Amino acid sequence: MSTDEHAAAPLTLRQRRRAAAVQEILDAAERHIAEHGPAALSLRAIARSLGMTVQALYHYFPSRDDLVTALIAKAYEDLADAVQTAVDAATDDSARERVLVAAEGYRRWAIAHPERFQLLYGTPLRYYAAPVEGPTTRAVRRMSAIFEREMFDGFTTAQLAAADTPGLSAALLAHLDQLPPTGRQELPPPATALVLSAWGHMHGLVVLEVFGHTAFLGDHQAEIFRMAMRNLFQDIHRRIASAGPGTAPADPRPRERASSTGR
Asked: What is the pLDDT of residues 43-54, one digit of tens each?
């Protein structure tokens, strides 16, 4: 049997039942988090809500950490789906507009799912440590890859390498150069620094809003966010476009759009 035939083989009845049970447990855990917050995650309460014993739940998730890892990975995947869906629905195909709507998709998901967002970025759960290079790492890299693609669409590697990022030490640039890529291509260290800076600004504003620190703005929070993100991405693009003489122009070829269902 070929690899493709093996991959297309239908699941057995036992596998389908297990997948359905796993999904039911995850759904119950998400409801529990939404009602009580991530810190109150209780396997016993989740099992009770499903009419099963804790021992039966352990058959699907051998430990609390296994369940937490699955919940975090799923939250990251759902967040990435929301960001990608926003990009796919963008009516303006300019790079600046697409990265702006990606940021707004990130914000909307966080506001709609504050407890799950807190699971990702709030106070770390006590005694929990995500597995190294595990599903949570892969999931967050997928989301990072979306922002990298939209932020740097149309720029060449030479332009990104020559981006205007004054004040960065040689040691930091060397460290950034050793980080594993999150997208389809390795970014030069200056571009990686711009991504990290942009994410910090974007995420910081979202955290302030989700945790109620900008509630005094009322219905104007979305407008403030859009203004801040538009200025941020315009500044980043200016830093790349003005990278210096002799830099190759932006690639005029049509961009490759990723499907919202792609992994």
From this structure: 999 999 999 999
